[in-house]
Amino acid sequence: MATPRPLPTTSLQLPDPLPLDSGQVLDGVTMAYETYGTLASDRRNAILVPHALTGDQHLASEHPITGKPGWWVRMVGPGKPIDTDRFFVICANVIGSCMGSSGPAALDSDGRPWAMRFPVITIRDMVRAQVALLDVLGIERLHAVVGGSMGGMQTLSLAANFPDRADRVLAIATTARHSAQNIAFHEVGRQAIMADPNWQAGDYYGTGAAPDKGLSVARMAAHITYLSEAGLTGKFGRRFQDRPDGTAGGRSFGFDADFQVESYLRHQGLAFTDRFDANSYLYITRAMDYFDLAEEHGGRLADAFAGTRARFCVVSFDTDWLYPTSESRSLVQALNAAAAPVSFVELSAPYGHDSFLLDVPALDRVVKGFLE
Amino acid sequence: MATPRPLPTTSLQLPDPLPLDSGQVLDGVTMAYETYGTLASDRRNAILVPHALTGDQHLASEHPITGKPGWWVRMVGPGKPIDTDRFFVICANVIGSCMGSSGPAALDSDGRPWAMRFPVITIRDMVRAQVALLDVLGIERLHAVVGGSMGGMQTLSLAANFPDRADRVLAIATTARHSAQNIAFHEVGRQAIMADPNWQAGDYYGTGAAPDKGLSVARMAAHITYLSEAGLTGKFGRRFQDRPDGTAGGRSFGFDADFQVESYLRHQGLAFTDRFDANSYLYITRAMDYFDLAEEHGGRLADAFAGTRARFCVVSFDTDWLYPTSESRSLVQALNAAAAPVSFVELSAPYGHDSFLLDVPALDRVVKGFLE
């Protein structure tokens, strides 16, 4: 994505400067967001759904670049587990991202893209911006905050740092801190991007050439971590691709994609570059790596939730090796230690980390039940 | 590694052309190898140790580029589990690699580097070349063949395709076929290399610029798969690096390596480019991805071992997620079905796949006992 395009989305400028964990202050923050359903007159039916690393505000509506349905359209809509006939659902593009909110691809006050002049942000900074958006929208208290993966980090961060803002907190396939292995995979992605000569220290906007090759490699590496080994085997195994002429494939004794899994990964990498900005990938992975909710609160995770009065629900998936169930258990123990009401469920699903986005009817039931 | 240097190693040219699985024939194959110990007069005390993806023939002697000790010096030497006071140990650089044997960095008969004109090879081709080397050395029957990781694949391939050449077969931390996830990680590495503009379709020799950035990213991604999540956490956790001035580190709110694990991975990637050729990385990963011993033998793994009279020992590590114990179990079941004598042990070690190279005394005992 060499040059960000104007996109059809709702956005507004936050009235106040946004203080950041780095000590910097971000002025004139733009928040791009979508809403679904109708805000009740008492303003008590709002649900905030923070998105994941490469997600965006198009939760339940067509993506303006890819034309694909919203990323959680199976979960959010009329009569669905997050029922837009009952709830007013808000999804905002996180700061640092590239779908309309302030980030490296957006223009600074001098009219030039921020690029690497954009301040390094944290998960808490993303949440601060969303809480400021809620203030503008006049929503004092959420019925619930619901998020998976990095959305789950934001969900937990909101509960910890703004304990009066949500009645229910639903954290799915997530963690209270990024592990060494998580950081390592992100660092591979960042190095792939920064190794691309088109990256040009981040100043590639308007050059007509973006570091798409590096971004594509970053996406490929990350994508493997989103799937389970068994899921990959079930979906692709060692099956060869058919040849272009339709005949059965096999070893080409070359470096084309012989295996279906190679072709799939290459496609995932390339398609990603159409809709995502490489600098945003750097900034958001950095924010995730910095995330350590215990460290933010004196080193004890339970203390992060000392002030909460919310009800919690924590969901993990048995095949998720990116944020395995053990991470969710630690979180639940901390919530127990903080005497917060919490329910916990490990769901069985074959898709690995991506299970939270896919067809797992048991998750639908958990979400629906928790929001009652 | 932009230009291969002449290296101090033993080498010879195979007398006969080498037929390859691709149907091509490789003439004038050079095999670079090292030997340790003395060949007995009856020539029955030889042990072949095929090396892993990024290994080489410097099994138990100093590496000529890095100056580091041999990669298995803890296992091979006088009085060690592979005892060079008793055994004559041979380790040959695999074809396709870059430490003196024929490969893309070596010169073709026209005096130019092969580069991508080098034929795509398989694990079986690597083994054919090593068996041809044994013929030259006058070794008809090995006391044992012993290998870990890709060395284990060669070990199994030798047992399957040359059943009269080894009395004992010891396969460590390996698999009889590369999984979809294994292929996926390799494909990320290959794409990282080929995305590097210095790669120039493989014709970078003598240009003074090699695709070191791409190769470094490939190595970083692969390196994560060699370690266990718990091992990474134990070794690095979320610890920050000290700053250059010696003060305690922390979040820099930038993109330098703040975490120790980032710095470690970057170093692993960079150091690798000093000693390894990017094209060799492409060729050898391809050979590994193509490896499927069952498919080679009509689709049933047991049939691969129908003609064997060797004794087998299979070793896996409980924290190896690259080639997990389940892969070894499938192999052992096939050997049982082929009525081959086999012992199997899963060892507990914290280091993940790399356990076979590291300080695991239980492995020493297994190796020593099996070679008696």
UniProtKB/TrEMBL annotation, chains A, B:
Pathway assigned in UniProt: Amino-acid biosynthesis; L-methionine biosynthesis via de novo pathway; O-acetyl-L-homoserine from L-homoserine: step 1/1
Keywords recorded for this protein, A-Z: Acyltransferase, Amino-acid biosynthesis, Cytoplasm, Methionine biosynthesis, Transferase
Metal-binding is among the record's keywords: no
Enzyme class: transferase
Main location: cytoplasm
Pfam family, one: Abhydrolase_1
AB hydrolase-1 domain: residues covered: 46-358
GO cellular component terms, semicolon-separated: cytoplasm
Subcellular location as annotated: Cytoplasm
Active site positions: S149, D320, H353
GO biological process assignments: homoserine metabolic process; methionine biosynthetic process
Key word Metal-binding present: no
Catalytic activity: L-homoserine + acetyl-CoA = O-acetyl-L-homoserine + CoA
UniProt-recorded Gene Ontology molecular function terms: homoserine O-acetyltransferase activity
EC number: 2.3.1.31
Family statement drawn from the similarity comment of this UniProt entry: Belongs to the AB hydrolase superfamily. MetX family.
Subunit structure: Homodimer.
Record's function text: Transfers an acetyl group from acetyl-CoA to L-homoserine, forming acetyl-L-homoserine.
HAMAP family referenced in this protein's UniProt entry, alphabetically: MetX_acyltransf
Protein name, per record: Homoserine O-acetyltransferase
Organism: Croceibacterium mercuriale
Gene: metX
